[in-house]
């Protein structure tokens, strides 16, 4: 196995997921996150807006809003992740990869104040390493905030033994799936 093979298999798996498993998984994962002490303490969180059958974090976003946390989403600017505040779906627009992103009128969020980042992935391994779309966006972003708490989000089937990490790969602190918390 190599990175490209894992990527292909996992994307094929995600394509097959039905709506009920998707909704159930999102609920379970968001329920697990709301129980984490790091989530309770966090006042600023960077989440993602799901695409192509990624686990949806919408239930968590609503919980975070209710609790008065600052919720930001990545906006791609010059190929870099720039977190901007997410306050309403009406302020979203489609970015380069058809991902919904905050528009330029949304406030930029001070990355030093972010307490928790929920990270989408194509696969994760049991040591916390992440495989994404191969563009290195999150790895390059984490270089700017090495100490932030990084929580990978995935379906159980997306957990593999190794993703063959390279020097630039930055491991997660925790991975949450519908049925387990890995590395906790
Ligand atoms: N929901 C979500 N938001 C995110 C990411 C992500 O992986 N998921 N990103 C993570 O970096 C950044 C945006 N970069 C992305 C890079 C590639 C693709 C993607 O879906 N690529 C597919 C298809 C591309 C296409 O439509 O042409 C691919 O490469 O197969 C998505 C986001 C920040 N926001
Ligand atoms: N810190 C970094 N500085 C410069 N380039 C980097 C850095 N991290 C990763 N890259 C580059 O990004 C490319 C993609 O890396 P990798 O295959 O690990 O991406 P990925 O984690 O799967 O994808 P993504 O983060 O976009 O979802 C690599 O070719 C690598 O050289």
From TrEMBL:
ATP-binding found in the keyword field: yes
Keywords: ATP-binding, Ligase, Magnesium, Metal-binding, Nucleotide-binding
Membrane spanning residue stretches: none
Entry annotated with the keyword Transferase: no
GO biological process, one term: tetrahydrofolate interconversion
Cofactor(s) required, per the database record: Mg(2+)
InterPro entries to which the protein is assigned, alphabetical: FTHF_cligase, FTHF_cligase-like_sf, NagB/RpiA_transferase-like
EC number: 6.3.3.2
Residues given in the record as ATP binding sites: 3-7, 130-138
Single GO molecular function: ATP binding
Catalytic activity field: (6S)-5-formyl-5,6,7,8-tetrahydrofolate + ATP = (6R)-5,10-methenyltetrahydrofolate + ADP + phosphate
Positions annotated to bind substrate: 54
Family per record: Belongs to the 5-formyltetrahydrofolate cyclo-ligase family.
Protein's recorded name: 5-formyltetrahydrofolate cyclo-ligase
UniProt source species: Shimazuella alba
